[in-house]
Design brief:
The protein is an alpha/beta fold. It is built from 25 helices and 12 strands. Strands 7-6-5-8-9-11-10-12 form an 8-stranded mixed sheet, sandwiched between helices. The protein has a 4-stranded antiparallel sheet with strand order 1-2-3-4, covered by helices on one side. Strand 8, helix 23 and strand 9 form a beta-alpha-beta unit. Helix 1 runs antiparallel to helix 7, helix 2 packs antiparallel against helix 12 and helix 3 crosses helix 4. It comes from Sandarakinorhabdus fusca.
Length: about 750
């Protein structure tokens, strides 16, 4: 057997690792997109999927580590055999034989779906990075650090997949084609792995015996923690980003791409210098940006999102660079990667499963930032700062700093909003304590925590300032607050309003917010008695606080479709909201994904259907596709009316609905409601955009006439003739993003 030239060895292993990592990270957003029509568009879908990917990645690394007990020839034979066995599950597709969630907890159901659909291929591909490095170490021209360049190559392939999917693959190909293309890539990877194994067998096992010293328990713990914190920050940052915009691959992959970029730089040629810069920049960025972790402001959500991504990158690079600097010799290579994977999986477990069960708010994010502050190997900012800790009075600083920071934080929080100058002075004092503590992790982390607590943390924990109610479920965090000045009670999901009820006398049943009497849905729902003979069959998707139920009239039959049981509890709790109790006590509530539940309803069983199923400002994409509109058409009576809410801070959905209406033969009109500048006490009408759709122009004229509006109040939709209707198989939100200059 002719031996492969040394010059071809590195390119072969680089190609194998690149292809494997590209496939590994391509399947993540691709498959999550595939399961949306079955589970919905919550950011939690991606977080649970990420937990699965990290857990299976851990399994792949454990498998690669265990293979090292075998002779190289046995490793190659076993790995290629399992490769072929995993290939029997192709092409990539969501398993249709697994029943829909039903009463099964959504997180467990999604984990099961991922396991049976892509578990085998994901496991076998995930082993490529550590396994190829171990095989490469058999080369007689390897040096002690040679295999580690393949880790940077692995992360480069991963990042390429994450960039390519939302920008090139998703907008240009259908899901079914993507599944077959990925399967073809799996075959290519099998051939590359076989060639790499053959090349490794042809070369002397120069480094196999060089096992190096034993790995200590302290090292394992440190590797785990250095991987755990960035992994957790990845998911907590992703949750914020996708909660307020949309749960879809373009936005899922931004934090993940930044996270992988930190790995690439840390393990690349300039990793030492980049790590030094990141370690130096991380403490001030934590103080400037991380201290805002408890601050919530819907008007500045873009700023917080961008700052969160920047902070994630710098902290991840600092910790991953530290991890790279502490890598062992080649003999302990697979164990090293195994513990990195353990840390990644634990970070995912904490954010995806533990935090939603333990916390009623996103406390995991500030906790992870404090953990990062404890792990950063930062140096003192200057020699004078270091001398403060080493002179004879240094012991006093160690004892005095924690209570001083605590006292200043409590004082600053109590003054915040009333004595701005005093509060600002307290924050400057705490920041000064934090700056002189850089290089002393416990004290720096404490001062940093106190700064976060000053900027919203104490208020978050203060029983007197607590909301009326807060509920956290798999699908999000719901907060109910009272505004005494406006005399209203508000329901918020993330930073977005999801319902308002008046606390003013005599106005408790008046619809408000996006559903006010002047809104499109308010005008059409009020006209139902003039459009349909009794009993009119009314339905809406997205229960919220139950506001729409107050358009119910005697003799009508009302149904609400709601994905989250927690939301049903909020709407039915008379101590929180009374819309349902007062206006429609007989409201039928169907729990489950609206599209799946509507598909089970009888044909033509609804006269009016309103679709308003946003999670915060995030849109369940599967409810805005052509297939979804066909489900709505199926359940509507021939003269039925469909109403779709498209108010959104970031996306212009009017052309999307226009393209679907054009393709499916709907007549569509849009009503933009802008309430007056002065509102009476207890009234909280908000700007809204609702689209009405009917099967014929004549029926649309009847609907507008029944509302009493002028025809000009209901305008034709803006339609870009080049726009493609969204489908389950093909959708891209890139064209829908609003221009920041418009």
């Amino acid at each position: 057997m002719q031996r492969m030239p040394a010059a071809m060895l590195r390119p072969l292993f680089v190609a194998t690792v690149l292809v494997g990592s590209f496939l590994l990270f391509l399947i993540q957003p691709m498959f999550a997109r595939m399961v949306m029509p079955r589970l919905g568009g919550s950011s939690s879908v991606w977080n649970v999927a990420m937990l699965f990917y990290q857990a299976v990645l851990l399994g792949g690394y454990l498998y690669a580590h265990a293979l090292q007990r075998l002779a190289l020839r046995q490793q190659i034979a076993l790995h290629l055999t399992l490769f072929l066995a995993a290939g029997l599950t192709l092409p990539v597709a969501a398993a249709t034989w697994l029943p829909d969630p039903g009463t099964t907890p959504p997180a467990l159901w999604l984990l099961a779906l991922l396991a049976v659909s892509i578990g085998p291929v994901f496991l076998i591909v995930s082993a490529q990075a550590p396994l190829m490095q171990a095989w490469f170490a058999h080369s007689d021209d390897s040096s002690a650090d040679a295999p580690f360049f393949l880790y940077a190559a692995s992360n480069t392939g991963s990042l390429a997949a994450l960039v390519a999917y939302p920008l090139l693959i998703e907008p240009g190909t259908r899901l079914a084609v993507q599944g077959w293309a990925w399967s073809a890539g799996f075959v290519v990877l099998f051939l590359l792995v076989a060639l790499a194994g053959r090349a490794a067998l042809q070369r002397p096992a120069a480094l196999v015996a060089a096992r190096g010293g034993a790995v200590t328990g302290r090292q394992r713990m440190r590797w785990t923690l250095l991987a755990l914190v960035p992994s957790g920050l990845l998911l907590s940052t992703t949750s914020h980003l996708t909660t307020d915009i949309m749960a879809m691959p373009l936005l899922w992959v931004i934090p993940l791409a930044v996270y992988l970029l930190s790995f690439i730089i840390a393990f690349g040629g300039g990793g030492v210098r980049a790590t030094r810069i990141a370690v130096g920049a991380a403490p001030p960025l934590l103080l400037l940006l991380g201290s805002l972790a408890f601050v919530t402001a819907s008007a500045a959500v873009i700023f917080y999102t961008v700052s969160g991504v920047v902070l994630l990158f710098v902290v991840a690079l600092a910790l991953h660079g530290t991890l790279a600097a502490e890598r062992p010799d080649v003999g302990n290579l697979t164990e090293y990667y195994l513990w990195i994977s353990v840390g990644g999986a634990l970070g995912g477990l904490f954010c995806a499963l533990v935090a939603p069960l333990v916390f009623d708010w996103g406390y995991e994010h500030p906790l992870l930032l404090v953990a990062a502050a404890l792990l950063l190997p930062a140096r003192p900012v200057a020699a004078w700062a270091d001398r403060l800790w080493t002179w004879r009075g240094g012991a006093a600083i160690r004892w005095l700093l924690p209570p001083l920071a605590l006292a200043a934080s409590l004082a600053g929080a109590s003054w915040l909003g009333s004595q701005t100058d005093a509060s600002l002075a307290a924050m400057v004092f705490i920041m000064a304590l934090a700056v002189v503590s850089i290089g002393r992790p416990p004290w720096f982390a404490w001062a940093f925590l106190m700064l976060m607590m000053t900027l919203g943390g104490w208020k978050q924990l203060d029983p007197a300032a607590a909301p009326v109610d807060r509920t956290r479920s798999f699908f999000g965090i719901y907060t109910v607050r009272d505004s005494q000045a406006r005399q209203v009670r508000e329901l918020q999901h993330g930073t977005t309003l999801h319902g308002v009820q008046s606390l003013a006398a005599g106005k408790a049943t008046r619809p408000t917010s996006y559903y006010a009497p002047g809104s499109g849905v308010g005008r059409v729902f009020s006209a139902a008695p003039r459009l349909f003979a009794a009993p009119a069959r009314m339905a809406f998707v997205g229960l919220g606080s139950g506001t729409l139920a107050c358009y119910a009239r005697p003799g009508q039959r009302w149904t609400a479709f709601e994905l989250d049981p927690a939301m049903v509890g909020i709407a039915r709790d008379r101590h929180l909201f009374t819309y349902v109790e007062r206006c429609a006590p007989g409201l039928r509530i169907v729990v489950g994904d609206a599209r799946l539940m509507l598909a089970r309803e009888a044909v033509g069983s609804v006269d009016m259907l309103a679709v308003d199923a946003f999670s915060s400002d995030a849109i369940p994409l599967h409810l805005m596709t052509t297939e979804a509109f066909r489900v709505y058409a199926r359940v509507l009576a021939p003269d039925g009316v469909l109403l779709v809410h498209i108010s959104n801070r970031y996306l212009d959905l009017e052309p999307v609905v226009a393209a679907i209406a054009r393709a499916e033969g709907w007549t569509a009109r849009v009503r933009r409601h802008q309430p007056g500048p002065v509102a009476a006490p207890g009234e909280a009408d908000t700007r809204s955009i609702w689209i009405a759709l009917t099967r014929s122009p004549a029926r649309m004229e009847q609907v507008i006439a029944a509302t009493g509006d002028a025809p000009a109040d209901w305008q034709a939709l803006r339609d870009s003739r080049g726009a493609q209707p969204w489908t389950d198989d093909f959708a891209s939100i890139l064209p829908a993003f609003k221009s920041p200059f418009r």
